[in-house]
Amino acid sequence: MTQQPPQTTSTPNAGDNAGTWDLSIDVADLAGRPGSHRRVESAVQAGAPDPHGPAMQLASGDQADVTVDLESVVEGIYVHGTVDADLVGECSRCLDPVEQVIQARFDELFLYPNKVRRGEEQDAVLLEDDQVDLTPLVRDTLAIEADERPLCREDCPGLCPQCGMRMEDDPDHEHVVIDDRWAALQGLFSEPGTTDGPETEATADATAEPEVER
Ligand SMILES: [Zn+2]
Ligand SMILES: [Zn+2]
Question: 209 and 196 in contact (C-beta within 8 Å)?
């Protein structure tokens, strides 16, 4: 009698944008019949975006379209296809919304377990229970294509380092730097020795809104 040690159950891809995808395809009709093939068109819906996930993700509820050709070969089932998806994210400089249209190809050979060559066990993707699971393949394909530092446009000027406004809205805006003469005048308003409560506040106001011209 063997006793299995209690296993810790890990939630696969918790919080992952693709966590609920099901792209498993039953290929019992193709297995062991080299030369036979089938095309499958499928779609998966995105869950809630992962705030710690990649910069570009599917919008919640949006779908990715997957078209895949399944070909039975001697060693297993060879799959190749395309994934179409519109990813959304924020410009890495100005935080404006950014879209990225992806149409990417993928392919993989799902090997019959008895066809795996010695030494290749690590990299082999196995065909188990006549099921081809495209989820990791499609997810990785999207992840590779997705921009890591998306930009609304190549020369996006970003945000003003001083006030945070979008430089594009007002490319010439400047921040008034009070020059030495003005600073000296300000010193006159706040007389030394009277720097209790209200006086300090008045000084702060004068600093914030200097009336340059009259
Ligand atoms: Zn931008
Ligand atoms: Zn500014």
Answer: no
